[in-house]
Amino acid sequence: MTLLEIKNLHARIGDTEILHGIDLTINRGEVHAIMGPNGSGKSTLSYVLSGRDGYEVTEGDILLDGKSVLEMEADERARAGMFLAFQYPVELPGVSGMAFLRAAVNARRREVGEDEVDHLEFVKLVRAQADQLGIGSEMLKRAVNVGFSGGEKKRYEILQMALLKPALSILDETDSGLDVDALKIVSDGVNAQRGGSCGMLVITHYQRLLSHIVPDFVHILAQGRIVKSGDKQLALEVEENGYAGLVDAA
Amino acid sequence: MRGWSMQHDMADSPLNWADRQRDAQHYLDSRGWPDRRDEAWKFTSLRHLADKDFTVGSPGADITTAPAGTPAPGLDGLVIGINAGIFNADNLPSLPKGVTVRDISNDDRARAELFIQPSGGHLLTALSAVRQTSALVIEIADGVQLDQPLILHFTGGEETVSSYPFIALQIGAGGWAAIAEIHQSSAGLSCPLLAIDIGDQAQLDHIRIQDEARHTTHLGLNHIRIGEQAVVNSFALSCGGCLSRLETHSLFDGTKGDLAQSAIYLGHNSQHHDITSFVAHESANCTSRQLIRGVLDDKARGVFQGKVRVAPDAQKTDGQQMSRALLLSSDAEADAKPELEIFADDVVCSHGATIGELDDSQLFYLCSRGLTVEQAREMLIEAFLLDALGEIARPDFAACLTEAVSRWTAALYNRQVTAAGE
User: Fold this and answer.
1) Cβ pairs A/B, distance under 8 A
2) Exposed / middle / buried, residue B18 (Cβ in 10 Å: 0-12, 13-18, 19+)
3) Residues of B with CB below 8 A from A143's CB?
4) ipTM for the complex?
5) Which pLDDT tens digit goes with each residue over B60-97?
6) Would an 8 Å CB–CB cutoff place B416 in contact with chain A?
7) A107 to chain B: which residues are within 8 Å by CB?
């Protein structure tokens, strides 16, 4: 069953068109990877999907569960089940981590008609998930992302993903800044959530993440277009030969 | 306040009250209301007062009953009510041992003795001398430690009335008191003057909430003398009135004193909030720490003027000052004038001021987690104010101010929702 459908998507920042017609369909349960060189439009795609201000869609459509999200603000898309794991998670000095996580979870719960979670129950829920990601209680007490190492920030993104249970997760360069051990912890966290009715879009520059989070489909993005699609073998080819041949074909 | 030269005349001054009043009247007559040409008032002009013809609050003019109920949610203490600038001893609660409250409104000798003013004069001390509506002395005897806070509750008045209460607060050596100034009057002009004297090794926890009526111009001046090894933890919140200035002069008059003096101002519509502070390090080994946070919406304007002066003998001074303003609207405006004047060579002093807007990437991060933009803004504004609120030592004072700030940010959120729905 189709979860996300991107149809002939053109988008620009200011006067510069970055995406020149992207088509991509993700069915429930599938993990898709988008690979591409720097400047190919990978991060732009993630921001356009999640509804960031300043990224304007000029043509085409984005459908989540068959409904266009183009008229929806970022928060509405999030509550509808979209989640972006940031390449550079943002520090929020003074914002309590637990208050933030709870506000986010309750926003999503209200949307799907569930009761808001009470404080004690929520603490238990967070602790259980945090343990699996190697996030200690000290880190949970801090302000959101403040004083976190690169690896801690990425684990915190995956913690949010686990708590929010999104229908569609977009992971933007989740591997950047991670050492081998952190990469394994983060990948295990993501793999624990794959399958079932949710879908994932894993955006990465390097193949190494994809040996941990093995995708069902791989797409190569170059100069704002998908120039080639295939299975996980395609990622290995890129690792072997680089993007040069693929980009030239674009 | 010529050039901030702030050696205060203290109680040993030879002038009697009539001389004081004559000098003060001369000061007012020769200068009029200050405007931007006056350096001390360059960001806060008082020209609008020139057209007003206020009745000075007087007994019988507008003195009703004692203020009812608690002045602020969660705050419990001994309430001393000042109504339209008038103190009425009949409404005084029974006071604990070691605490006395004296009405000196008709005692010119006491008034002259307790009077304070910066050298060269000052608008607000001159106004107080000429128009004083009430004068009282609150004394806390040496070594007395008060559990319950004293709440100075300023209420009453109407748009045509002006009020000039004077309060001398004296904490004896080794004493400990908590004072809450709650300004909720509805006078057209409210000019409280406080002379706070903190004895050696004494401690004061202090909050000052300016939550006056929307037509009120509030010009408050506090002078704090800090004795040897005395500790002051003071926090001001300015959120009411149409124009306000909370001015504070703090003087270290003994070694090893410690002053934490923070403030938050919250402005909307066309409100104008001015936080002006002068810290005089006259003694060695003293510490002052100031955190100022302002949030301004609509066409509101915020001003912070902070001067720290370190005298030649005040070695080992540690003076820190940081002000940050957050503008929520393109029509809002903030001005900051931090100044350091250091005459000693072995000191650690720093100051800084920033003015900015809510960060787009922070807002997007919160919205991408499903929070509405209003929720996201509220969360970021509260977080911005939180580190200043964290400076408040007493839990009841902290709770009272946190509640006031939350109420303001929630109202901001409601206004936005209403505006969006229109």
Assistant:
1) 71
2) exposed
3) 383
4) 0.96
5) 444 444 444 567 777 899 999 999 999 988 888 899 99
6) no
7) 369-372, 375
